[in-house]
Design a protein that fits this description.
Layout lengths: L12 H19 L1 H11 L8 H10 L5 E2 H8 L3 H13 L3 E5 L7 E5 L1 H22 L4 H24 L3 H8 L1
Helix pairs in contact: 1-2, 2-6, 3-5, 4-5
Length: 175
Amino acid sequence: MATRRTAVDFTTASDRDAAVKIGAAWRDLRRGASNAAVRDYFYGNETETLDAGQMDTLDVLVHRPSWRMSDLAEALRVDPSTATRAVQRLLKEHLAERGTDADDGRVVTVFATDEGRRLHARVDERRGFVITKLMSAFSVDERGLLAELMTRFVRELDELVKELPNSADADAQNA
């Protein structure tokens, strides 16, 4: 669904207040104490050696029989080298294995092991509990709207990132 863009005007109290609230919520989601507590609940002691990015990688891996590394990196929205590092840790922990593509033996694929799938199932059960509790705070209509708005927010952020100058360009502009 196409969305109509509207101008943002920080001279108006409503736009300024909305921006401050969105910024604070974003910061709190990333850095808040609740984030650490929820992460600890999700992953527990069984994933002490994995970070959130590696668990995200496992989360994506379990949804298909195998992945080409380039497709995995795209699904994770990361650079291929970042995906490779996450996969290396999963390989080390025996949560993933490498293989070759059935159609092209030169192409490396990666897939979750049975142990990786079991770990994912335990984490996913805990995540389901948290999401269910969070969603119950919203009406059925609000849940749909929240899902739509969060999805659109992420999509717009992905598009914005494509337009950002690299840090060297930004430094030159600010000099």
